[in-house]
Amino acid sequence: MAGYVLSNINPTTSQWDALTGMNNNGTLPGPPTADGEPNIFYVKTPLFNFQFSFDENGNPVFSNATGIQVFARNFNNSTNYANCSFEVIDDQGNQYYFGSTPASVENTTTTLFNTSYTFPSTWYLDKIVAYNSTDVVSLSYTTAPSSDVLYHYYGTMISDQQGHVYYDTLNPTASTVAAKYVSRIVSMSGEADFTYSYGRSDDVNGAILQNISLQAYNSQSQSNNSTLQIFYFYYSYFGAPSTDPNVLRFRLDSIFVVGNTSATSAPLTIKSFVYNTTNQMPTRKSLSVADYWGYLHYIPSETFTLFPNNDRTPVAAAAQTDVLTSITDLTGLTWNLSYELNDYYNASSNTTIKIGGLRVNKLAETLSTGETLSKTYSYVNSSGNSNGQILSNSYSLVSITKIDTISPGNYDQMTQYYSESPSE
Question: What is the dihedral of CA 77, 78, 79, 85, to 10 degrees?
Answer without folding.
Answer: -140
